[in-house]
Amino acid sequence: MIRQGLKFSLGAALLTSFFWHRGNVLDNFVYPVFGYVSVLIEPSMGGAIAAGLGRLGGSALGGIIAAILVNAYGIQGSSFFVIPSLTYILAALICETYRWQAAYSQATLLGALIAMRVVGTSAQQDIWLYLRSRLIDNWIGIAVGIAVALLFWPQNTRSDLNRNLMGILQDIPRLFQKILDRYLKTEVEERDYSLSIEQNELNLLNQIKKSTQTSLSTLTKATHEFGSEILVAENWSEILAIQNQLTRQLADLMAFKGEKHEQNLVGQFRAEFHQLATHLTDSFDSLR
Predict the structure, then answer these.
(1) Are 168 and 243 in contact (CB under 8 A)?
(2) Mean pLDDT of 95-115
(3) Regarding predicted confidence, which is higher, 133 or 47?
(4) What is residue 196's predicted lDDT score, i.e. its pLDDT?
């Protein structure tokens, strides 16, 4: 979060140095800021690059829709209220229809803003010149955002995936041992069983699930990063699929608590289950 804050501050300083001399702040400064924020709002480097590329086209889409409507119907009377709304609706409809989510925010925002800001400017006479100027400003902000994402504290996806994997390899044997210990309790011990222990198991399972989902999201966004072929070669997608499978199996084991016959079944294989738990711990330690 601190790094993201520093990136936003750095971009604001750069854009201010580029545009401070322009008189109309709303017309000339707000467009590059929108472009910059739309890129840096993505926490991962791959997500920022994908967002930037998508929003380059998105801003053009929204701006062109606004320009066509303004050029065709003007901005007098009721058109002033209808055209911005209609621009937003059409841009949103196109993005939803073609599932262009990366372009959605810039297409709707820039289109509606251009349609509204054109009132009272010289763009009423030449809407296409006004559109070109605003898109260039917006694209400068997007370009600065991509540059900052690439050059300043870029996210190391492989390190993040490894860190999450190390935690999961430590947590899975611990959770399995906790579940096994609960099944092997005698009836007297079961009466003294603390609900806090069950809650600890649930917290540990949720932690494993959260780490796996975080890794899946990180890997998905990393497809646009430089060096992403290394992640493909190391087969991280299969690793995360196995993590998901193990998590589901642990959840199933925890759900067996209510089955009375399971208690006796586990008790018959007490030694074997302890061997399995030891083997699981040793194997995961070796993987770590």
Answers:
(1) yes
(2) 87
(3) 133
(4) 63
How many residues would you count in the chain? 288
Instruction: Encode pLDDT of 138-196 as tens digits.
Output: 999 999 998 888 888 777 788 889 999 999 999 999 999 888 887 776 444 554 555 56
DSSP state of 153: S
First to last CA, the chain: 28
Cβ contacts of residue 101 below 8 Å, gap of 6+?
54, 95
Measured between alpha carbons, how far is 111 from 10 in angstroms, rounded to an integer?
A: 27
Would you say 121 and 131 are in contact if contact means Cβ atoms under 8 Å apart?
no
Distance of alpha carbon 77 from alpha carbon 75, whole angstroms:
7
Report yes or no: 264 and 186 within 8 Å, Cβ to Cβ.
Answer: no
Q: How confident is the model at residue 58 (pLDDT cuts 50, 70, 90)?
A: very high
Cα-Cα-Cα-Cα dihedral sign, residues 34, 38, 41, 43: negative
Residue 221 CA to chain centroid, in angstroms? 7
pTM of the model: 0.62
| Residue among 84, 80, 67 at smallest CA distance from 119 | 80
CA distances 85 to 8, 65, 78, Å, are: 30, 11, 11
Q: Show the tokens assigned to 104.
A: 């959605």
H helices of the chain, in order, are 2-19, 25-28, 30-40, 45-73, 79-97, 101-117, 127-151, 157-183, 187-191, 195-221, 228-233, 236-255, 260-268, 270-287
Specify whether the CB–CB gap between 10 and 152 falls below 8 A: yes
3-state SS, residue 227: coil
Q: Which of 58-62, 81-85, 160-164, 181-185 has the lowest mean pLDDT?
A: 181-185
